[in-house]
Amino acid sequence: MGDLTEKMVRGLLHDAGEIEVFLSPRGREKACALSREFSCHVMPDNQAVVDAADIVLIGVRPKQLVELAQQVTLRRDQKLISLASGVSVIELRRLFDIQCCVRAILSYAAEINRATVAIFPADPEAQTLLRSLGNLVVLASETEFELATVSACMNGWFYFLLHDLQHWLVEKGLPPERARALVTSSMEDCAAYARHQDSLSIRDLGQSIATPGTFTAQGLEMLELHQANAAWNAACEVVFDALLTQSGRGDPEAH
Ligand SMILES: NC(=O)c1ccc[n+]([C@@H]2O[C@H](COP(=O)([O-])OP(=O)(O)OC[C@H]3O[C@@H](n4cnc5c(N)ncnc54)[C@H](OP(=O)(O)O)[C@@H]3O)[C@@H](O)[C@H]2O)c1
After folding, report:
1. Selecting from 3.30.70.330, 3.40.50.970, 3.10.20.740, 3.40.50.720, what CATH number does the domain 3-140 have?
2. What confidence tens digit (pLDDT) does each residue in 45-91 have?
């Protein structure tokens, strides 16, 4: 039971209705803590988890998948949902010798049922289960899914952006809790309004705020001078390249 899986299981146990959860004994501390808090079972080994489950959820690191696959035999009718980044459906089918493999990616907000949950391919049963964790986005291809993985990394980067902005406000004299309330609420309201105004492009929305002569426009000019967008693009590119390389589809000509 790793960090992400723990949050996912917490979210599922809060909100997925009648489900029974069987946990691997690995990551023992977290698994035991969960089983004390909720009614879920820590099984003696991974095969016992597989034998008890209809859907097998895998949250190990990509490098740990081969070892895990050697420890278990899945039934032909079972479904596997993998969180392992950069490991394709074909590779999962090969490793676990079953047909029905679904990839999913989500954020820590799964714990409070507010995560962005991306899955590939479409699968009604997996969608029903994971929908309880937040906003479900079904991707149409494996490459789209790798792009969704980059987007999941953006979620992590947003915390650092929020931290930097909060830190600036605090340095200038705002108490930390009020600075935190302002930056987190501001990010939330931006996302909510962009959702509400979905007929406008996000750039147009920004431009409708940063009109000439405004303070927002003045700050934006400075961000552009420092090529803030180039730094974000570079971070996205490096992760996308790494994902394509790991999944064996790395082709510098492809993007
Ligand atoms: N963290 C994120 O925000 C995030 C975001 C997107 C995707 N992901 C993907 O999600 C997956 C999990 O990430 P994480 O951050 O939760 O990883 P993590 O905290 O490192 O957890 C990995 C867990 O896998 C367990 N494990 C290793 N080998 C195992 C085996 N053979 N059988 C059962 N359990 C085994 C480990 O148990 P031990 O402690 O006993 O070794 C550990 O608890 C990764 O593939 C990652 O690519 C993570």
Report:
1. 3.40.50.720
2. 999 999 999 999 999 999 999 999 999 999 998 999 999 999 999 99
98-129: pLDDT as tens digits: 999 999 999 999 999 999 999 999 999 999 99
* Nearest protein Cα to ligand 1, atom 19: 2
Pinpoint the residues of the chain covered by CATH 1.10.3730.10: 150-246
99 is written with which tokens?
A: 């047909």
What is the reported pTM? 0.92
| 48-to-76, 85, 141, 200 alpha-carbon distances in Å | 16, 25, 33, 51
| 208 CA → ligand 1 middle, Å | 43
What angle, rounded to 10 degrees, do the helices at 215-225 and 228-246 form?
Answer: 50
2 CB within 6 A, ligand 1 = yes
**Superfamily of segment(s) 150-246:** ProC C-terminal domain-like (1.10.3730.10)
Alpha helices in 76-214 (DSSP H): 89-96, 124-130, 142-171, 176-196, 202-209
